[in-house]
Amino acid sequence: MKIGNPNDKPVAAPAPVTSGQTAATAAGKTQTAAKQEAAAEASTQVALSSAATQLMSGTEGVSGDFDTEKVARIAQAIADGKFEVNAGAIADKLLANAREVLGGPSH
106 and 96 in contact (C-beta within 8 Å)? Predict the structure, then answer.
């Protein structure tokens, strides 16, 4: 797939209208052909790995439970303008996660 400026791509010419055919009919046939192509592309088979399946289901390392009272307290603190962000703790966790993903040593 080539990525670039959409304005650099050529514009497809409309299908020619034959005798006895209106412009709307020709456009309708073009739309039908486009729908058929989209349906053909949609039928492509994709197989996910077990790791991808776990990530999609959200089951890896997550219990699915959360503290609704804590969420309410945090939401209220944000609404009141009293919520403070600990940038150092966030940075430490981001670095630890990056090390884990890249396989480096954890500190």
Answer: yes
The tokens describing 69, both together, are 């009272």
Contact 49, 58 (CB under 8 A): no
pLDDT tens-digit map of 7-41: 666 666 666 655 555 555 555 556 777 677 766 66
Q: Could you tell me if 105 and 99 are in contact, meaning their C-beta atoms sit under 8 angstroms apart?
A: yes
For the chain, what is the total number of helices (H) and then of strands (E)?
4, 0
Q: What is the Cα–Cα distance from 35 to 32, expressed in whole angstroms?
A: 5
All structural domains of the chain with their residue ranges: 67-107
Q: Which tokens is 89 given? A: 């703790």
Q: What is the pTM of this model?
A: 0.32
| Assigned token pair, 51 | 């790791």
